[in-house]
Amino acid sequence: MLKSEECKQIVERVYNIVDKNINIINLQGIVVASSNPKRIGTFHEGGRLAATSDVEVIITEQNKHLYKGCKEGINLPIKYKKKTIGIVGITGDPKEIKPYGLIVKELVELLIQENESRYNRELQDQAIVNFILELIKSPGVKDEETYERRAKFLNVGDLRNKIIAVGSINYLSKELQQSGEIKIQEAKSKLLEFVKSYYKDEKIIIFYLYDGSFIMILPYKDNLKEDIIELRQQIIKELKIDVSFVISEECKTYSDYGKNYSKLDRAVIINNSQENRKDIISVKNYSIELLMDSISYGYKEQYLENYDDFFSQSKNKLKQELIETVKVYFENNMNIGSTSEALFVHRNTIGYRINKIKEEFGIDITKAYECMKLYIAICLREQPMH
Q: In the chain, what are the domains?
């Protein structure tokens, strides 16, 4: 029950409050923590007697020779759930420290309860994390009822009709980067607390998957993407941390988690590997990218050879603009007006670029099939090669 590291922290906190030498002694009479480091690990006869008799033991100048390893002071049993788990000793003239005795005892007991509660919460949190990891990495759940019972036992409720979202930290502010590793880790912890507070009225699960990426289980709703857009803006504004999000398809049943997370994880890898990450991706609108990612390296190379001329000359600003125009033009149903609005340029500029592609490379992207083939080539080129 008495953990030496926790006892050390308790002694430090109590000593700072009462400014008296404090010892915490186990049931065998060994000092496990003390504000006087030399006493740690020594035998304390008064503490052992207080533990075995379950009563206060007072040691004075006159009787201290009867107690091995003891100085003047008071030794009081520490109770947890009505059971003695150790002894707290206060060094000094009993007449002077007597008024502090019960205060120190109660303070130590409160801190032990606090530590135990925190430890239990940590165990509970870890159990939830393990359950979610098992669920999302399972190829398929056959026994829905078992998972439902486990979810209720862990007090996370019914996990049906949820979505999985993965947030990835793109960068920290320069101020944070220069503040040192401790401050960076504190900022990352604060990020999770911020997200929890943002969803304070909803029951969510959130934890770090690995350094820089965290997973969230959120209730499904129609305006979910808009909600996450707002969350991202608040994170950037309040914490000075830029985060991108990838959102899964709806997990209507427990068996959906494995297959939905598999696509989600791949989408995260693709997005994080690109030079210009997208701020928010919905997997249900990312199927083409996922399909292209599944194509073998050799076939990608063969396909891209057809567009060597287009890409080899695409290093200057104009050619980069042409590539972006093709993408946005195709994604906007080959509508010049919508493309110009999306790129914030005049519609005549889009017309000029379309003609430039036809004249210089012989590709007429006003023809749907030609535009689609070039769009595929651009997407393949942006995919990580593996």
A: 4-112 (3.30.450.40), 137-291 (3.30.70.1230), 295-382 (1.10.10.2840)
